Structure formats: C-alpha cells, structure tokens
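Contributing new records

If you add data, match the layout below exactly. Sequence lines come first and carry their own label; structure lines follow with theirs. Keep one chain per record. Anything else will be rejected by the validation script.
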Amino acid sequence: MARILQAPLKFHPSEWDIANKMQSASTESQKSRSERVTAESRRLLDEIEKTTQKTQSDVNKKIEQRQEEIKFWKQELDNKLEQIFHETELLLTFKTRLEKSLESCKEPLDVAQKCLLNRQRRAGIDLVHDEVEQELMKEAEVLQGVIALLERTLEQTNEQIRLSRSAKYDLEMDLKDKFTALMIDDYCASLTNNTPDIRYVDHTVKIEGNFVSPEDWTDFSNVNIEKAEKQRNNSLALRTLIDGILSQTASDMCQQREAVNVAFRNRVKEVRDAKHQLESLLMMVMDETASQEKNIEALKKAIADKEGPVKVAQTRLEARNHRPNTELCYDTVQHRLTSEVKEITKNIERQDTLAQAETELKGLSRRQLSLEEEIRVKENTLYIDEVLCMQMRESVHINNF
C-alpha cells in the first residue's frame, strides 16, 4: 500500500533541458531527412517525367519511321503488283493468240489429209508417188509438228500464268498485311496521354514466339518482290518466244502451203499436157484406123477384081489343052497364057497383106481402146487434183496471230 502511494520519479532540470534539446535535435534531423527525400523525389519525378517524355517522343519517332518503312515497302509491293498484273494480262492475250493459232491449224491439216486420201483414188499409172504427194506428206508433217509445238508452248504458258498468279497472290497478301499494319501504327501514332480510350493491358510486353526480326520482315517482302520480278521476266521471255514461234510457224506453214500449191499446178499442167498428147495420139490412131479400113477394102476389091481374068486365062488353057495331035503345040499363045496364069496367081498370092492389114487394124483398135482408157485415167486425175483438191485448198488461209 505504501509502495502504491510512492511519489513519481523526479528528473533533474538538466535532464529536462537535455530531453528538450534531444527532441529538438531529433525533430530537426527528421525534418532534414524528410526534406532530402522530398528534394530527391522531386528530382526523381522530374527525371522520370523527362525520361518518359523523351522515351515517348522516341517511340513516336520510331512509329513514324516504321510507318515510313511500311509505306516504302507497300509502294514497292504496289509497283511490283501492278507490273505482274499487267504482264499476266499481256501473257493472257498471247495465250489467246496461241489458242487461235492452234485452232487454225486443224483445217489445213484436215485438208492435207483429205487431199492425200482423194489422191489414192487415182487409177493406173497415175497412182504415182509424185512431187505433189511428197509435198502433201511434208505439209501434214509440218502441220503436225506445228500443232505439237503450239500445244507444248500453250502448256508452258498456262504454267507461267499459274506461277505469275501465285506471285501476284503473295504480293496481295503481303500488301494486305502491310495495309493492316499501317492502319494499326497510324492508330498508335494518333494516341496521346489524353486519348479517352487508352487503358492498362496486362502482359503486353511479353514477346510471343510468332514475332519475326526486322531482318526477316524485310526479307519476306523482298523475297516476294524478287519472286514476282523473276516471274515477270520469265513471262517477258516467254512472250518473246511465243511471238517468234507464231511468226515462224506461220511462215513455215505458208511456205509449205505454197510449195504444195506449186506442185499441184505443175502436176495439173503435166497431166493436162499428157492428156492432150494422148488425145493427139488417139486422133492419129483413129485416122490411121480409117485409112487401114479403106486399105483393107481396096485389097478385098483388088482380089475380087482378079477373079475374072484368072478364070478366063485358066479356061483358055483348059480349052487349048484339048487340041488334037500335032495341034497341041506350045506356041506363043500357050506360052503367054501360061505366063498370064502364073502372073495373076502370083499377084493374088501377094494379097496376103490383107491378113496383115487386118491384124494391124485389130492392133489399132486395141491401141485406141488403150488410149481412151488412159485419157479417162488422166481425166480422173485432173478431176481429183484440180477440182477436188485445189478448190478445197483455196479455202485454207494461214494467219499470223
């Protein structure tokens, strides 16, 4: 109880003074430290503000630079896309030329084959492997070769169009991505610290695995441009090749067509000349036949005319052979009668030329039939070559598409 009522501890005035001084010193120290922190904070805030502004300014410049890079490559892609598109359209027109040229080869080939088939209907000696047939066969070979070449070139053209369109597609996709990227960066460039829709977004600094390096980004567009340029150059070379092929094949076909036509004209002239010669020979044979028929008639008449004199002479001799005794004399009359009978008999025997003349007449008749048949063969040949073939070939036109 006594302890509870014990008086509180008393401090010495000096202790009180020291305590007050310590409080003052401690407060001053705390205030000083606080002021230093405040000053450091202000310096730090000012540094952070300047750094942030500088960084944001640098980012804005980087975005601006990136926009220019995208615009540059976008323009490059646009230019190359326009070039490959234009070149592909030109190649499509060349493809049409190839198709028309290929289609136009069918009729000349059909005509050449029909001419060869028609000429198989020539008869006899006229069924000859002449220059016309040789040139027709060569024409068919030329046309078949041209068709094969045009078909291969058309296949090559279709493949080149496919490759060009593939390059064009890659450019379009790259351009589409560039356009989207430019729109995004334009949006980013428009953002400021006071833009209403800015917000906190978590995990934005995380770099995903599908990010590419700037070098890869540049290489990607560069590869697309180089691919398009390569296909454009290939297309240019192919168009030059097609132009040469169309010109050369048209020239070859025209040249061979003219060679066949010249051979036909020459052959028709030869056959017509041969026909005229045969007709002249036929007229000669017919004239000779008429002459031989007259000769035979004359020979027959001459033989008939000698029957009277020979009968008279033989009757006289027969009668004088009956003279009596010494009157049976071989006098001048007997001698002349005997000579007359021998002479007439000999002359009659000389008329065996009648049989020879009749043989010759038969030979002339056979020759006439042979000539007439040969003339019909020539007429058939002329009809085939001049009417069927040459008129059919008049409808054939070789165009340089």
